[in-house]
Amino acid sequence: MITLGVLERSVMNALWESPDGLSAPELGERLVAAEAPAKRRELATTTLLTVLSRLESKGFVSRSRATRPHRYHAVNSRSEHTAELMHEVLQLAPDRDDALARFVGGVSPTEAETLRRLLASRGTGN
Amino acid sequence: MTGAWVGLAVLALALAWPVPIALSKAAWPARAPGTALALWQAVALSGGLSMIGALLAFGLTPFENDLGVASNLLSGHLLDGALPTQTGALQIVSLAGAVVLGVHLVLSLATTAANTARERRRHRALIELLSSPLQGSPDTRMLDFPAPVAYCLPGVRSITVLTEGLVRVLDAAQLRAVLAHERAHLRQYHHLVLLAFKAWNIALPWFPIANRAEKAVALLVEMLADDDARREVDDASLATAIAIVGSPWRDVDPAAAPIAADEIVPEADPETLGARVSRLISPPGSLTRAARALVLASGVALVAAPVAVLVALL
Question: I want to staple B4 with a disulfide (CB 3.0 to 4.6 A). Which of B35, B57, B85, B127 is the partner?
C-alpha cells in the first residue's frame, strides 16, 4: 500500500534530484522505475497531479505553465529545507518561536567548559 | 471596597516584580521542579487576575451601594443610566483599563496559539517530506543533518525528531535517555505550559512576572523531562547525553555536512545546561513533603485571593 505521505515523499525526492523540473508523466515514469520490479505498477497521472497540487499549495513545489504539460520544480533544495527546520528548532529565525521543545538549549563556550569540568570531577570519583 | 482594590493592587505589584525575581533566583525549584512549575503558574494566573481585579474594583468604587449587580452593569447601567455622582474620570479610565488588559491577555494567548499551530503544521509537513519514520517506531523520525539535535513536535500524533549527527555521537543508553526525555515532554504536555508563558511574555514583555517566568519555566520543564528519563536510564548516561548534545558542534566533520554546520551555532543560554547537568551529577535531595505542600498551598491562596474579590464584585 502506498500512502499519500510516502507518495509525497517520493515525488519530492524525484523533484529534488531534477534541477530542470519534471512534468507529471516524466515524474510517473521515474517513480515507477524506482520501485522494485515485483511491486511495480502504474501510477495514475491524476493521482500524481493531486499530490503535486497539494505540494504546490503547501509551497514546496512550483509549477511553470509556459510549456504543455506543465513542469514542476522543487521550490527549495532538500538541504535548504533541512536548514530551515534546524534554524527554527534552534531558534535562530528572526521570528523565533517555542513551538518545539528541544533536548538541549543553546550552549555557550563557558557552559561547555563547566560541563567538561563537572563530568571530569564525576570521572575521578568523588 | 477600598480595601479590595488596594489589596489587589498590592498583590498585583508584588507578583509583577519582587516575587518572580525572588522565585527565579531561588535554589529550591531544582529540588522540586513540578511543585515550582505549579507555583509559577499560580503566580502568573494570580498576577493577571489581580491586575484586572484591582482596576475593576477601583473603577467600581462609586457603585458601592449597587454591588453584586454585574448584571446591572452589563445591561447598560453604566451606559445609559445616570452615573453615580462620585464617578470620576479616573474610575472610568480604570474600568476601561481592566477591559483592555483582559482582552489584551486573551488575544495574546489566541494569536500565539494560532501562530504556533501554523508553524508546527509547516514544520510537520516538511519533516514528513524530509524523513521516513524509523522502522518499528513510526513516531520517531531521523533527519539527515550533521549536528546532534533532538526535539519533539507536539500534535495529534506527536513525533520525535532525531538527527543523524545525534545518532552518530551517542551510544545506545544515551540515545534512550534522549528519547525518554523527549517523550516525557510530550506526555506531560509541556508545550502547552510553554505556550501560555510565551503568550504571557509577549503580552507583558516588560514585567519580570512574564520574562523571568518564561525562562524559569523553560528550565523547569527540562528538569521534569530529565527526571522522567532518569527512571529509564542511569543519571550518567543522561548527563553525558546532555553534555555531548550541548557541546559546540564545530567538531562535526564539515565534509559530511550538506550545509555548513558553522552557520548554525546555538545562541548562548547561560546556566540552563550547567544547572541540568550538575543536578544529575550531584542530585540535590528533593524538597520535603511538608515544604512542597506549603508551596502548593501558597499557590492556591495566591489564585484564590483575586478570584474571591472578583466573585464578590461581579
Answer: B57
CA closest to A14 among chain B residues:
B129
What CA–CA distance (Å, rounded) separates B109 from B227? 29
Top-confidence residue, A114 or A80: A80
Residue from B243, B119, B271 nearest B177 by CA: B243
Q: Please state the rounded mean pLDDT for residues B154-167.
A: 90
Architecture of domain A4-74: Orthogonal Bundle (1.10)
Least confident interval from B91-95, B143-147, B190-194, B217-221: B143-147
To the nearest whole angstrom, how far is the Cα of A10 from the nearest Cα of chain B?
8
- Chain B nearest C-alpha distance from A65 (Å): 24
Give ipTM to 2 decimals.
0.76
Domain with CATH 1.10.10.10 in chain A: 4-74
Which whole-number Å values give the CA distances from B312 to A107, B47, B78, B302, in the listed order? 49, 18, 18, 16
Q: How far apart are CA B56 and CA B307, in angstroms?
A: 12
Specify whether the backbone of B36 is left (phi greater than 0), alpha (psi in -120 to 50) or beta: alpha
Q: Do A101 and B152 touch (CB under 8 A)?
A: yes
- Annotate A19-56 with three-state secondary structure: CCCEEHHHHHHHHHHHCCHHHCCCCCHHHHHHHHHHHH
The reply to whether residue A101 touches residue B191, judged by beta carbons under 8 angstroms, is: yes
CA nearest to A126 within chain B: B282
Q: Which of B111, B112, B130 is the best mutation test for A, with the most CBs of A within 10 A?
A: B130
Cβ within 8 Å, pair A82-B143: yes
CA distance A43 to chain B (A): 19
- Mean pLDDT lowest among B42-56, B90-104, B119-133, B247-261: B247-261
Residue B24 Cα, gap to closest chain A Cα (Å): 18
pLDDT, tens digit, 9 for 90 and up, residues A84-108: 888 788 764 344 444 455 666 544 5
Size of interface A-B (CB pairs under 8 A): 160
Q: What is the pLDDT of residues B262-308, one digit of tens each?
A: 444 443 354 677 888 889 888 899 999 999 999 999 999 999 999 99
**Which of A87, A99, A119 comes nearest B116 by C-beta?**
A99
